[in-house]
Design goal:
Butyryl-CoA Dehydrogenase, subunit A, domain 3, 17 helices, four-stranded mixed sheet, 511 residues, six-stranded mixed sheet, alpha+beta
């Protein structure tokens, strides 16, 4: 089924335990700041009902019933490209698919790993995953992935922690009908908006840490689950929020510290339980899928940033200056690179684990993520440089709406003839909002840190091919058996006449 917005909003009235700014949240739908992200998340239930988006977001299950396309498992390049199109389209609208990004990526990773474990261990996890997928489709539930553990002392493995053993989510008891889990997950996006939490390891575990090799899914309102939502970036909403914080008022940080206080999980919702050998597969698969979403998220963000820089240059009357155009050209290049690298990751998918589910190409998708993360601060610097100091000291909505001081703002903060002062102020507020601390930190660390991308890039690189290229160029044996360079034709096949040695000023070497 495809739920309506009202059905989604009604589902959030489930007694969930959420805390924000030291207070228990009575109702996320009416909370002054959290309600903003609920409204944005509800786009997940708007887009599938729009005629122009229906073909993209809606597909049919095996019974011919309409279901959300993002709940399916991508099996080839075409389906990865459609998944990408869903993400980009929704993010361009202002932040849709919040409920079907991390969760859908975790579900895809469950599918990959269950397939591998079943083949190698004879388990039946794939059946559980597919039954759970059918439940999600039937009820059209909002899902998010609870991946990152709080970690404690990062120099120590989970079972070696000194303070306590619960820095990583773990199994504390195995019972006849399920397991008991304890621990916490952190930085979990869209958690106050979701119906279900899909929990997964964030790292590779060894045998000593097998109780931490754990994957499962549970409703947010489950007894023992507590969400501690982060401090809102903006405490304004409505017209004031849209003016002062045009991006963050709609996309308030929804990250939570999620505490699992001895939570019971029935076996049918458990998708890994101590199989430590496959924790790497699960973490790797999730990261690959979620970095695809990250690049899609950044397409909309980078387009807005590059467009804002161009717009403020026009409003300030400097759009023809050579140094401004160089900055804008560089911003446009980074935006295009991220778009194309994400597309390339879908066109050349990986199936390295021998299953029939396609994953984004690891080199391309991590290159895309690293490109925008490593260049994001420079993007912000260019935006701020082009905008000028006013992007820091720009008046607020309340200033603008005050009839006593508005005439002075109108007169002295106008610029290019034909551009209203209000439009200039709005783009300045946008630049201030998009270059704030939250967006910069989120962009660097969201979907994995730059160190994580570098690790994936190193491990995914075809070093045999690269070294063969160097050996062939340097005439060092060892390249001949490489699948790419070993079959290439050599310039030595060209038969040349004898060298004329009568040229005294040119050193003549042997053929």
């Amino acid at each position: 089924m495809i739920r309506t917005v009202q059905q989604y909003l009604d589902s959030l009235d489930d007694g969930r335990e959420i805390w924000c700014m030291g207070e228990r949240v009575k109702d996320v739908r009416t909370h002054p700041t959290l309600s903003g992200i609920i409204k944005t998340a509800a786009l997940d239930y708007v887009l599938p009902h729009q005629p122009e988006y229906r073909e993209l977001f809606v597909t049919q299950d095996e019974d011919g019933e309409d279901v959300n396309y993002l709940l399916t498992a991508p099996r080839n390049a075409e389906e990865l490209l459609r998944r990408r199109a869903c993400y980009i389209t929704a993010m361009r609208t202002g932040g849709g698919v919040l409920l079907h990004c991390m969760g859908a990526d975790a579900l895809a990773a469950f599918t990959v790993t269950a397939n591998v474990m079943d083949k190698e261990l004879g388990t039946h996890y794939s059946e559980r995953v597919e039954n759970y997928r059918k439940l999600l489709m039937k009820q059209d539930l909002g899902i998010t992935g609870a991946i990152t553990d709080v970690k404690g002392d990062r120099s120590l493995h989970p079972s070696q922690q000194k303070q306590h053993p619960d820095y990583y989510l773990r199994i504390v008891d195995r019972q006849k009908d399920g397991i008991i889990v304890r621990g916490a997950k952190v930085h979990i996006s869209a958690s106050p908006c979701a119906n279900e939490l899909l929990c997964s390891p964030c790292r590779t575990h060894g045998e000593a840490d097998k109780d931490y090799a754990l994957a499962f899914a549970m409703p947010v309102a489950t007894k023992g689950i507590k969400l501690l939502a982060v401090e809102p970036v903006s405490r304004t909403y409505g017209a004031e929020g849209r003016f002062d914080y045009p991006k963050t008022s709609a996309l308030q940080p929804t990250e939570s510290l999620i505490v699992f206080d001895d939570v019971f999980v029935p076996w049918e919702r458990v998708f890994m339980c101590g199989e430590w050998q496959f924790s790497r597969t699960l973490a790797y698969a999730f990261a690959s899928y979620h970095r695809l979403f990250g690049t899609c998220k950044m397409v909309g963000k980078l387009e807005a940033m590059t467009g804002a820089a161009a717009l403020v240059a026009e409003y300030n009357g400097v759009d023809r200056a050579d140094h401004i155009r160089k900055k804008l050209a560089w911003m446009a290049m980074i935006t295009h690179m991220v778009f194309e690298l994400g597309r390339a990751a879908c066109l050349d998918p990986a199936k390295e684990f021998g299953h029939d589910v396609a994953m984004p190409n690891p080199m391309s998708i991590n290159s895309a993520k690293f490109t925008f993360a490593s260049n994001f601060h420079q993007m912000c610097q260019h935006m701020q440089d082009i905008a000028g100091g006013l992007c820091t000291t720009v008046p607020t909505y309340r200033d603008w709406r005050n009839p006593e001081i508005r005439p002075y703002i109108e007169k002295y903060l106008s610029a290019k003839d034909g551009v209203s002062t209000e439009e200039r102020l709005r783009v300045m507020r946008l630049i201030k909002d998009m270059t704030g601390n939250f967006w910069q930190i989120d962009t660097i660390h969201g979907e994995g840190s730059m160190a994580a991308q570098q690790m994936f890039l190193y491990n995914s690189a075809d070093w045999d091919r690269l070294k063969a290229a160097a050996k062939r160029a340097a005439h060092i044996d060892g390249w001949q058996n490489n699948a790419v360079y070993g079959d290439l034709v050599s310039p030595d096949v060209v038969e040349m006449p004898e060298v004329d040695e009568s040229y005294k000023s040119i050193p003549v070497t042997a053929k």
